[in-house]
Batch of 4 targets.
Target 1
Amino acid sequence: MLNFIFSEVARRHAEGSDVQYSCKCSYLEIYREQIIDLLEPSSTNLQVREDVNCGIYVERLSEHTVWTASDAFHVLWKGLHQRHVGATQMNERSSRSHAVFTLTLEATSTTAGGVTASRL
């Protein structure tokens, strides 16, 4: 999926599109009813908030700008290494939490003056 997204952005850029793209990644873990930023592990006990303009979001969750699929995979791997795991009889590195990796792709049109944001 990440390869497709960045290939499509590169293809549209090569076509001379008047749209500029920016991509940001965040990665959180829900462990023992607490939200932890996997990209900034010292940020714990984060809170879910709702805003009329922003919608639902996690307060103080870090976002890392990425330019390529390789950058996004690096962020993903960085977060994976921070996850809470433990041994079970069936799996020695069993996950003990739920995790959410979010890639936000923002497209800005230079001619229309509008901004469209999509979350994947």
Target 2
Amino acid sequence: KPVVAAVDYANVGGSNRQTVLALGGTETDPLQTTVLRFRGPAAQKTFVTSHGQQMLDSNTWAGYELDRSIFALTNQNTAPPLTTDQELIWKLKRLDEDTVVANFRIAGYLNAQSDMLFFEARNRAVSIQDYMMEFKRTKE
């Protein structure tokens, strides 16, 4: 059953459509903030708060992205929004001209706005999910 009603980019600060176009981008380039509207009375806004990348050697690339998501009810309910922080970490290695292997980690962190155990966690991940993938070039 579909639960998503719409996903849109949000114009915020330095990541807005006008700035992207002024820097030579296009109308379809992604922005750093998205708004996800669910079919029920809820929405989630996700911000990219930091990102980086590095070539580890001629065939290996690593990158990360830190995200903050705010999930809120959009009806008359007075429940406070839920805020989560997560880090997405990628490592891609080219094995040959047709094969890339990837390690992908999602690290979840507590947030001071929404969890009283934030200070006990001492900025360490409280959940980790690891994935390994293999990508093959397809024949056209």
Target 3
Amino acid sequence: RARPRARPRGPMEKVAAEEITKLGADGEDEEQGRPRWPAVQPEIPRQARYFCFGPWCGCCPAYVLLAPFVGAFLYVLGFAALLVVVGLALLAVCLLGCPLCSVYVYQRFWECWPWGWQVDLYVKATYLAYQ
């Protein structure tokens, strides 16, 4: 037993309801033997709004106008971020790298003439601590 259908509300639902009633009981097109679905079209009068309308942007979409500016801003922002990273790396080398290299070279100089100490860092640090 078929279920009663609700009344169509708009003109497009009316067209869709008519298309559905043309189908057979099993939902297939009786002539072709394949599923047939109603084509639902937009309301009439059709109004496509592909572009932004208004006093500030009446010719084309806003994102097309803003894309070059956003790209330039992101390029400058990326370049500034790169400069910040390079600056932080140089600061780390200056604050950490130079003193550590100086300590390493100072420890290695103890192996040279006239001292010639072939000892590890613990012995050298203990000797310097008790000076």
Target 4
Amino acid sequence: RSGCSADIGDDRFNIVGAGSVPGFEAVNLGNKVDFDLVQPGIVELAKNALKEFPKSRAFCLECTELPAYADAIRAATGLPVFDAITACDFFINSKRDNNHFGNNGWQKKWDGKQEDYTYGSNLTEEQKGKLVNKCSDSL
């Protein structure tokens, strides 16, 4: 609760683990997940969650392995599905020109060139010293 200001004990939030889905154990083992094997189990898990928690109005997929199954859950349940991809889209689109209305044409189009980036190069020395995960001694 203190980390995200949400009480997971609140009955408005229903947590359902995917660990029992056949093939999903690959996540914990650090192996590649067999999408075709796992997808039916994830969809079945979502449908069963709705039977258990019929007042549910959306799904929030916490694991970064789950966005690949979001469309299948949407199609099977008709409910909104939020995940790491929709969260990123939300933040990215909050900075982009909305060409549907308002002040249009103010933002330059992306030139398709990606800037070079080295892990941690945007950090101050103090911030680098606080890093827990370090990819090299060059930091």
